[in-house]
TrEMBL record, chain A:
<protein>
    <submittedName>
        <fullName>ParA family protein</fullName>
    </submittedName>
</protein>
<feature type="region of interest" description="Disordered">
    <location>
        <begin position="242"/>
        <end position="266"/>
    </location>
</feature>
<dbReference type="Pfam" id="PF13614">
    <property type="entry name" value="AAA_31"/>
</dbReference>
<feature type="domain" description="AAA">
    <location>
        <begin position="12"/>
        <end position="197"/>
    </location>
</feature>
<dbReference type="InterPro" id="IPR050678">
    <property type="entry name" value="DNA_Partitioning_ATPase"/>
</dbReference>
<feature type="compositionally biased region" description="Polar residues">
    <location>
        <begin position="242"/>
        <end position="265"/>
    </location>
</feature>
<dbReference type="InterPro" id="IPR027417">
    <property type="entry name" value="P-loop_NTPase"/>
</dbReference>
<dbReference type="InterPro" id="IPR025669">
    <property type="entry name" value="AAA_dom"/>
</dbReference>
Automatic annotation (TrEMBL), chain B:
<protein>
    <recommendedName>
        <fullName>DUF8115 domain-containing protein</fullName>
    </recommendedName>
</protein>
<feature type="region of interest" description="Disordered">
    <location>
        <begin position="1"/>
        <end position="116"/>
    </location>
</feature>
<feature type="compositionally biased region" description="Basic and acidic residues">
    <location>
        <begin position="11"/>
        <end position="22"/>
    </location>
</feature>
<feature type="compositionally biased region" description="Acidic residues">
    <location>
        <begin position="47"/>
        <end position="66"/>
    </location>
</feature>
<dbReference type="Pfam" id="PF26424">
    <property type="entry name" value="DUF8115"/>
</dbReference>
<feature type="compositionally biased region" description="Basic and acidic residues">
    <location>
        <begin position="36"/>
        <end position="46"/>
    </location>
</feature>
<feature type="compositionally biased region" description="Acidic residues">
    <location>
        <begin position="1"/>
        <end position="10"/>
    </location>
</feature>
<dbReference type="InterPro" id="IPR058428">
    <property type="entry name" value="DUF8115"/>
</dbReference>
<feature type="domain" description="DUF8115">
    <location>
        <begin position="49"/>
        <end position="176"/>
    </location>
</feature>
Length: 283, 180
């Protein structure tokens, strides 16, 4: 059994396209022949479930209280006992949805919302940050996925630390702007500090220039700056800003399932495919 | 119902309760009894620490009062407003620098949350009625902070704390701004 590759999208800022990136890279990886599991930790909105059109089904389960165990349960002290009693297949299998576009998905759950506070109560750092990693090691690894991709919250908290700790490889979608450039710089420093403090090897694996607009000089300037600053991690292909991405998400699908044929939609698809190939190379 | 079923139901209750509490109050405890007890103990210890700190602070204040020849009753709100804003001590500056490094690297958890039923209910009501954004934006405007990615309950608590510090403990607030 080969080891499952893992990565997480993360940046301490909302609206940079993390969820879109996970969804599209996930489908691209599937098209490259990999079995992919997406895990949404990005909060109660369950955006990945919406992005793949499984939200209605999932919401119905939540409303009918047929949503246990769920992704927030795996962070609980009792998780081992729960899995032991239910059996792995029932405990984990019920969390997983088929997206219809290839990857499987464990959607975010409202219970994630208050986990940060609960995890704060755990004094020992390793225990606080390793709960997700233990779950992935013990229950996901044996399922033989080739790639596990986490969508992390757009803020630094105990849940995102759990995701980083487990993924080890970070993919950062950024827009071309001064604020985003500073954020990316800080993230690189933070990852270095975390690695040194905890002895875990976290690396910035790919920085994807997202929502770029080739018509503007500003975008071009920042692109050059990113390439100078992060030559080893910038993704090979920029993802252009495309209304088709938003439209397809509203329909509950990615661009790969959409028949949008605009130039930006085509280029965005190609960009995700090329970046997925490169990501596999780098990991 | 078998023993196993009963145990599963019990575990479901414990962790579903935690899910609900987490989702509903952001105060998020509600794990099993043992953990609850442990948390209570920890809270108790924390509370003890706070009390101890308060006592120490009180002693310091008493000392200062004595040296100034003032009594507690002589302190009026006007005097406090006129120059009584708290000033960060050297120890605070040192502790803050150390904590900043630890929080940056995640050794210390980073979080601001409302662990108070009244405040939780208030924030939830703001969220239910969709007024959380308006209130958050108002506080953000008053303090001149950067717009958060989302106006959730934590964001509003953070902004409110920032506002209160900027108004009532400006020198501590300056230290925060410098470090941010």
């Amino acid at each position: 059994m080969s080891e499952t590759l893992r990565a997480a999208t993360f940046l301490d800022k909302g609206g940079t396209g993390k969820t879109t990136t996970v969804a599209h890279l996930g489908v691209a990886l599937d098209r490259l022949g990999r079995d992919v599991l997406l895990i949404d930790l990005a909060g109660k909105q369950a955006d990945l479930a919406k992005n793949f059109g499984v939200w209605d089904e999932y919401r119905a389960r939540i409303e009918e209280e047929d949503d246990w165990p769920n992704i927030s349960t795996v962070f609980r002290e009792q998780w081992g006992r729960i899995a032991g009693k239910l059996g792995d297949e029932e405990a984990v299998g019920n969390m997983i949805f088929e997206t219809g576009e290839g990857p499987d998905l464990i959607p975010a759950h409202p219970g994630l919302d208050g986990l940060d506070t609960e995890l704060n109560d755990i004094e020992e750092t390793e225990r606080r940050y390793s709960r997700l990693d233990s779950f992935v090691n013990e229950y996901i690894e044996p399922m033989d996925y080739d790639f596990v991709f986490f969508d992390l919250p757009g803020s630094t908290n105990n849940v995102s630390y759990n995701g980083l700790w487990s993924a080890r490889n970070v993919v950062v979608p950024v827009e071309a702007g001064p604020f985003e450039a500073r954020q990316a710089g800080r993230l690189r420093d933070d990852l270095r500090r975390i690695s040194e403090s905890f002895g875990v090897d976290l690396s910035l694996s790919m920085l994807i220039l997202n929502k770029t607009d080739s018509r503007t000089r500003l975008s071009e300037e920042f692109t050059e700056e990113y390439e100078d600053e992060y030559p080893e991690v910038v993704a090979p292909t920029q993802v252009p800003r495309s209304q088709a991405v938003r439209n397809s998400a509203n329909r509950g699908e990615t661009l790969f399932a959409s028949n949008a044929s605009t130039g930006t939609a085509q280029r965005a698809r190609e960009a995700f495919m090329e970046n997925a190939e490169e990501l596999l190379e780098r990991l | 119902m078998t023993d196993n079923d009963e145990e599963i139901d019990e575990l479901r209750e414990q962790t579903r309760g935690a899910d609900r509490i987490s989702a509903d109050t952001n105060g998020g405890s509600g794990a099993d009894g043992g953990e609850e007890e442990k948390k209570e103990e920890e809270k108790g210890e924390d509370a003890g620490d706070v009390e101890e700190m308060k006592d120490e602070q009180g002693e310091e204040e008493d000392d200062e009062d004595t040296s100034d020849g003032k009594t507690e009753t002589e302190e009026t709100p006007d005097e406090t407003d006129a120059g009584g804003k708290p000033t960060p001590s050297d120890a605070f500056a040192e502790a803050f620098a150390e904590r900043s490094e630890r929080a940056k690297t995640g050794v210390d958890p980073r979080s601001v949350s409302a662990d108070d039923p009244g405040l939780s209910a208030f924030l939830l009501a703001l969220q239910d009625t969709g007024e959380i954004e308006e209130v958050g934006e108002a506080v953000r405007g008053a303090v001149g902070a950067q717009q958060p990615p989302e106006y959730d309950r934590d964001a509003v608590v953070r902004l409110a704390l920032t506002y209160a510090l900027s108004e009532e403990a400006p020198e501590h607030f300056d230290a925060l701004v410098e470090r941010s």
